[in-house]
Structure formats: structure tokens, C-alpha cells
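Hey, quick one: can you model this chain's 3D structure?
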Amino acid sequence: MVKSKKKITFGDVQSAAVNNSESEFIFNEIKTEINNIDSDLIGAFDEIQKLHEVWQNELII
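Sure thing. Here's the predicted structure for all 61 residues.
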């Protein structure tokens, strides 16, 4: 029988990082990169929506 692996949560990683200063630094760097990627994706989605509106309003008429 295969044991199911415990799902590691963001909180688990954060708790582990707090207990080790080097891990905390790495955790914060990764968190910053994830936030940057998230911002980039949101910006890209907004641009796609604008282009879609232009396409619908100006090119389909």
C-alpha cells in the first residue's frame, strides 16, 4: 500500500523558514519572485483584455 504524501502548504514553508535565517532569506527571495510573476501575469491579462475589446469594438463591426 502506498502512503499518500502530506501536501506542503505555504504556511509550512514559511514556518520552516522562520526557524533558519538562511532559509528565511531564500524563502523571501522566492516569495518576491512569485509576486513579480503574478504581477506580470495580471498585467499581461489586462493587455489581452484591452486587445480583445479593440478587436470586438473596431474590427467586428
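One thing worth noting: DSSP finds two helices and no strands in the chain.
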